[in-house]
């Protein structure tokens, strides 16, 4: 399975320190994200990636490399972003 930003989304970003606000023009919804969720959504904006590739990319971030529950955190983040319609899951 691959994860990518929903192609229907038109995202507008604003950030303050470690807080991010993303407005999805297509749905009219605004989402407040922490830096980890924003990192994942931004990473998926360039191209769809497998779960393992996203996890590997997250592990390269110095403040996240030592997070013991990184795998579970990523599952939660992808589920949240998918539930909000920002990320879609594809088989290829």
Task: Explain what this protein looks like in three dimensions.
- It is a single chain.
- This protein is of the alpha+beta class and 92 residues long.
- It has a three-stranded antiparallel sheet. It has a three-stranded antiparallel sheet with strand order 2-3-4.
- It has helices spanning 35-46, 51-59, 70-83; strands spanning 2-5, 11-16, 19-24, 29-34, 49-50, 87-90.
- The longest helix is centred in the C-terminal third of the chain and has 14 residues, at 70-83.
- A hairpin with a 2-residue loop joins strand 2 (11-16) and strand 3 (19-24).
- The chain is built from three helices and six strands; from the N terminus they run ββββαβααβ.
- The protein has a single domain (2-90), classed as Outer Surface Protein A, domain 3 (Alpha-Beta Complex), CATH 3.90.930.
Short synopsis of the structure:
By secondary structure, this protein is of the alpha+beta class.
Radius of gyration: 13 Å
Structural class label:
alpha+beta
The coarse overall form would be globular
- Please report the number of helical segments: 3
Report the sheet with the most strands, covering strand number, pairing sense and barrel closure: 3 strands, antiparallel
Give the strand line-up of the largest sheet. Answer: 5-1-6
Q: How many DSSP E strands?
A: 6
The CATH architecture can be given as Alpha-Beta Complex
Taken as a percent bin, the fraction of beta residues is 25-35%
